[in-house]
Amino acid sequence: MLNPNLFPFLLGLAAFLFTVGAMGVLIRRNPIVVFMCIELMLNAANVALVAYGRFLNSEEGQIFAFMVIVVAAAEVVVGLALITQIFRLGRELDVDDLSEMKE
Amino acid sequence: MTVIFAVVIALAAVSALGVVLSRQTIYSALSLVLTVTMLAVLFLLLNAQFLFAVQLIIYAGAVMVLFVFIVALLSPDAEDRPTLDLRAVIGILGVVVVTALVFIAARNGITYSTSGFHGVAVGAASNPYHTFNFPQDAVNNAGNVQTVAGQLFTNYLLPFEITSMLLLVAAIGAVYLTRRSSP
């Protein structure tokens, strides 16, 4: 059996990865990096799910993490297609400049 | 074992910071490759062999290749070093406070405790029609892929099928968005 004292570190890592990803979404302006930060946040959720599943002897966490990975892959495909389309329109890659949908 | 865990957790945390703080986009992408690889190793250490393989194949393989490909294709300029404005201060405060709070909560057994609720109760309550009667500890033994597949193709078959619809929609959306002549 795994040492139960390890669990706080795993959950702390998940919280750290999630908040670092959220900070990256806040402070970075390149949309590609913003997408990478979203990947970071999804991965943080996976760490928490797998850690809980491991310590509660349940496989449901792993199944949910698998679904999260699939959703992340689909999201990356659509997001990067959007970014290439923005680039093709001759726009600068900066999320602060993309504000057409504001009004 | 504990040493491996410490190294993996530290490397994952440091490379996650590298994703956010690198000025060059390609360095962010390579840092993210290191992060997802370290998380794959973490999954292996936590006895999630199936997720280890999936993480390596889908994330470190497919998704990151797509990212690096797009970065090479668009070759964005290096950003200025992020200034310490209000957004950055709020972000750093959020990282420190939330991580510390979650760690302390988990340390004091608020989020999980060995005596509070048991895996058996959780598994039985969430799964009344358990067709695959694996012993509860089987998840953490060698046959992990078998137990996960048993659950995935019985109790979670509908979400699994909906996933295929999601992938189809994503593929159609990507093709539609990257057409040459936009309407």
Outline the structure in words.
The complex is a heterodimer of chains A (103) and B (183). The relative contact order of chain A is 0.13. Chain A is mostly helical. Helices cover 69% and strands 0% of the residues of chain B. Chain B contains 7 helices and no strands. Chains A and B meet through α1, α2 and α3 of A and α1, α2, α3, α4 and α5 of B.
Describe how the helices and strands are arranged.
The complex is a heterodimer of chains A (103) and B (183).
Chain A: H1 7-27, H2 31-55, H3 60-88
Helix pairs in contact in A: 1-2, 2-3
Chain B: H1 2-21, H2 25-45, H3 49-74, H4 86-107, H5 119-126, H6 144-152, H7 157-177
Helix pairs in contact in B: 1-2, 2-3
Number of domains of chain A: 1
Note the overall shape of chain A: elongated
| Mean pLDDT level of chain A | 87
Strand content of chain B: under 5%
Would you identify the CATH architecture of chain A? Answer: Orthogonal Bundle
Structural class of chain A: mainly alpha
User: Count the strands of chain A?
Assistant: 0
State the helix count of chain A. 3
Q: What is the CA-based Rg of chain A, rounded?
A: 17 Å
Structural class of chain B comes to: mainly alpha
**What proportion of the residues of chain B is helical, as a percent range?**
55-70%
